Recover the amino acids of this structure.
């Protein structure tokens, strides 16, 4: 069977058990390849039922094809030459190890490979003898079957363990600069293994055991000593190769669904909540991490899942310059999934930028966050490309643009966007919309009212459309009646805030016909008539002189609050019935069963080690601030009004559609406001639900119990992330949290 590089590249996450994703057995599917030869009544059918993604082995076992391929190694046959004749080219591969796997699985006994020019491909040799023409860039290898007892084969499992042990050696090395080659080899091997296998289903017991042991070693290497708090004693740099090697340990832990940052709470909390792995060698300080986290908090689920992380367990945000040695870029791949992007090596506050340059509507943003938003917005292209309406509107507006003023980001302009259309959303959403949506809208309306161009307003409404979602289970475009406006100026410390926007739509075309912003009159939009709406352009706004800066007192920050009364609602297509068809029962027909879900140290009486805390949250005991015991969590305000939060992840749950969750907790305030809890539900790393419960009291008040609205589970999930957060704490203000309880009905 021909196993192309594209096939291997897609088989990511070797170390994950993806129980919900059945394998293709050929003419049927099963939970795993081992189940393929068993028919529904339990009868063993044998080899004939092991096809598709699965392969029958000499040991009479049905295993995944990539597990079989992992048993192939390689050994040197000839250097500096090509083979006499070739048969197949398996495509661009990163290393001879991957080439050996593809060749061995295809029944090829030898192959030629160029480490200098991998784009030349991994080529099977039909005649492996040298062609007698010297070639410094080709090497010929023989494939080794590691199942052969007579072979001297280093298995993938062994290479994996050797790699993490090399990282342990690095941390104990008093002079790692003397042997960078050792650590570079280990880092390269780990990168190859983790990226090549990052999405297959584990069935190889040797590999699973090695991965489990490797993860334990990786955590021990990265975690501070429990008694001394000391970390790896060697300083990891780009030149001694320690930095890229230690990051491969983080990749391993992330792929195993473990905390990749036992040595950094801010980095770990971002990964836990959003599956964003920061590859910065821990360069970012806590202030930078806070604003980065606030941005990803504000990315809607549909853009995170279907755009940023599409098909990958996590996205890697890289700071490649931190990994450089003497100005030379790191050659070893830092990211091991299909999703990642690079940002500048800046801290928050190092540099600012006017993202609305060459316009009369300047707005200053932090440069690091501008770059972060720009690169993240590139990932939204995937979502837009899959939506027929959004894609058609983008194409319409692009084709009709002829001048710089037809675009919102004028510092680059029409020629640039026509030549590089992949930069349109990254520039206009990343640089501007998610910095200040209201400023972008003001710019667009100014050009509209002046008769300069109608396209800027069309672009803004497209951005609103991209960020829109439905408050119900309905997925039609007409149901997406809520969206987000953003505010993230340098004057506010770069923190990203979101504001719910009510969206009115044309019942026929789905086109946006009104926007309701907090504290502003409704903005109405009339479009040209093109039938289906996607080729239309705005022709009028109501009122004609609409101008309003929406309230920065956010209501429903993630669109889960009631809409403002000034926003129009859609006219229902059918009149509601006068009365229910069946009268509801006066009492429940069944008594609900309550099962507590164990929140570890929900009363904060233990050491609270299972909670991830920001710097502004402390556990206080015997101070009289506990409610049901001696201890509580204290959230402390600060000059910069930085957010304060605690997070805990609960795993191995068995929540099914139709279940209901009940959350309650006790709070006491001393001037703090905007305190809320957030529950995120996940299934196999995918977010399947998010729920907000806000504290309605502000200022100073004594302990009272917050009983959140019941949370209806609509999809099966196995993990829950519980977060408590305050966003508006001035210096000297406090909030106390105690007695967190979570139950399942």
């Amino acid at each position: 069977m021909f196993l192309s590089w594209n096939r291997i590249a897609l088989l990511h996450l070797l170390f994950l058990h993806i129980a919900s994703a059945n394998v293709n057995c050929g003419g049927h599917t099963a939970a795993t390849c081992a189940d393929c030869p068993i028919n529904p009544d339990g009868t063993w059918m044998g080899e004939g039922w092991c096809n598709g993604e699965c392969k029958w082995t000499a040991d009479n076992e049905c295993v995944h094809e990539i597990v079989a391929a992992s048993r192939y190694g390689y050994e040197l046959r000839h250097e500096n030459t090509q083979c006499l004749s070739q048969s197949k080219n398996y495509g661009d591969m990163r290393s001879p190890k991957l080439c050996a796997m593809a060749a061995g699985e295809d029944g090829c006994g030898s192959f030629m490979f160029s480490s200098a020019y991998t784009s030349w491909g991994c080529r099977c040799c039909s005649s492996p003898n040298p062609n007698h023409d010297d070639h410094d860039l080709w090497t010929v290898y023989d494939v080794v079957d590691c199942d052969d007892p007579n072979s001297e084969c280093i298995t993938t499992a062994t290479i994996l363990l050797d790699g993490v042990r090399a990282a342990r050696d690095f941390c104990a090395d008093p002079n790692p600069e003397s042997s960078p080659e050792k650590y570079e080899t280990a880092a390269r091997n780990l990168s190859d293994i983790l990226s090549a296998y990052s999405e297959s289903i584990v069935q190889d017991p040797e590999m699973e055991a090695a991965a489990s042991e490797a993860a334990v070693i990786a955590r021990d290497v990265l975690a501070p000593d429990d008694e001394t708090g000391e970390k790896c004693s060697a300083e990891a740099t780009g030149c001694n190769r320690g930095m890229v090697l230690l990051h491969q340990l983080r990749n391993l832990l992330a792929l195993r669904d473990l905390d990749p940052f036992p040595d950094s709470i801010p980095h770990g909390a971002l990964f836990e909540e959003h599956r964003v792995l920061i590859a910065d060698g821990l360069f970012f300080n806590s202030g930078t991490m806070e604003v980065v986290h606030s941005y990803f908090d504000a990315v809607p689920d549909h853009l995170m899942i279907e755009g940023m992380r599409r098909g990958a367990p996590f996205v890697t945000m890289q700071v490649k310059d931190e990994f450089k040695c003497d100005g030379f870029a790191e050659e070893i791949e830092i990211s091991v999934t299909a999703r990642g992007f690079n940002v500048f090596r800046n801290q928050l506050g190092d540099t600012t930028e006017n993202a609305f340059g060459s316009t009369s509507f300047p707005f200053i943003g932090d440069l690091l966050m501008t770059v972060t938003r720009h690169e993240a917005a590139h990932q939204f292209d995937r979502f837009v490309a899959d939506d027929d309406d959004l894609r058609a509107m983008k194409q319409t507006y692009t084709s009709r643009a002829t001048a710089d003023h037809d675009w919102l980001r004028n510092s680059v302009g029409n020629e640039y966007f026509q030549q590089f259309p992949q930069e349109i959303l990254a520039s206009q959403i990343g640089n501007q919309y998610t910095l200040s949506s209201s400023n972008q809208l003001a710019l667009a309306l100014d050009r509209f009212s002046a008769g300069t161009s109608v396209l800027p307003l069309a672009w803004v409404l497209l951005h609103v459309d991209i960020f829109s979602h439905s408050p119900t289970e309905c997925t039609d475009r007409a149901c997406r009646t809520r969206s987000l406006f953003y505010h993230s100026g340098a004057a506010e410390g770069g923190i990203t805030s979101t504001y719910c926007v009510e969206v009115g739509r044309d019942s026929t075309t789905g086109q946006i016909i009104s926007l309701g912003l907090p504290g502003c009159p409704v903005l109405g939009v009339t479009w040209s008539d093109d039938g289906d709406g996607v080729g239309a352009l705005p022709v009028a706004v109501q009122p004609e002189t609409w101008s309003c800066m929406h309230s920065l007192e956010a209501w429903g920050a993630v669109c889960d609050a009631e809409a403002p009364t000034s926003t129009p609602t859609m006219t229902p297509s059918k009149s509601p019935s006068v009365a229910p068809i069946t009268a509801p029962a006066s009492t429940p027909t069944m008594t609900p069963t309550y099962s507590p879900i164990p929140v570890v140290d929900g009363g904060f009486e233990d050491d609270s080690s299972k909670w991830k805390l920001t710097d502004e949250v402390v556990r206080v005991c015997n101070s009289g601030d506990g409610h049901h015991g001696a201890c509580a969590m204290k959230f402390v305000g600060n000059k910069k009004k930085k957010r304060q939060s605690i997070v805990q992840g609960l795993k191995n749950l068995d929540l099914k559609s139709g279940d209901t969750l009940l959350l309650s907790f006790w709070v006491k305030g001393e001037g703090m406001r905007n305190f809320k809890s957030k529950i995120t539900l996940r299934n196999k790393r995918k977010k399947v639900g998010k729920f907000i419960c806000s504290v309605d009291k502000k200022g100073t008040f004594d302990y009272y119990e917050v009983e959140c609205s019941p949370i209806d589970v609509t999809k099966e999930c196995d993990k829950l992330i519980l977060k408590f957060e305050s966003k508006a704490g001035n210096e000297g203000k406090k909030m106390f949290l105690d007695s967190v309880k979570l139950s399942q009905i």
